[in-house]
Amino acid sequence: MPQSLMAFLIGAQIAGAAGVIAGLWWEPVGIAAAIGLTLYFAGAVAFHLRVGDNKGATPAALLTIASVALIVLHAATL
Fold first, then answer.
1. Which of 32, 29, 34, 56 is nearest to 45 (CA)?
2. 55-73 pLDDT per residue, tens
3. Does residue 5 belong to any structural domain of this protein?
4. Cα(76)–Cα(31) distance, integer angstroms
5. Does residue 3 fall inside a structural domain?
6. Residue 1 belongs to what H/E stretch?
7. What's the structural domain count of the chain?
8. Among 7, 9, 56, 58, who pairs with 48 as Cys (CB 3.0-4.6 Å)?
């Protein structure tokens, strides 16, 4: 990734984490944040695999699974 995009990517992760925490009080925000994190980490998996970085794809895949679990758990408590 170009260095110029790193600030945006870090900001997106921080916003997603803040949204998940805010979702403890307001469920729809948590679900939206978890969906955003799922897309973020799925994109990370795709880009890691695209450049042949299989070691980097594994943690991103685990975080994608964790984000999907957040969606399921938030949706189950509605």
1. 56
2. 999 999 999 999 999 999 8
3. no
4. 11
5. no
6. none
7. 1
8. 56
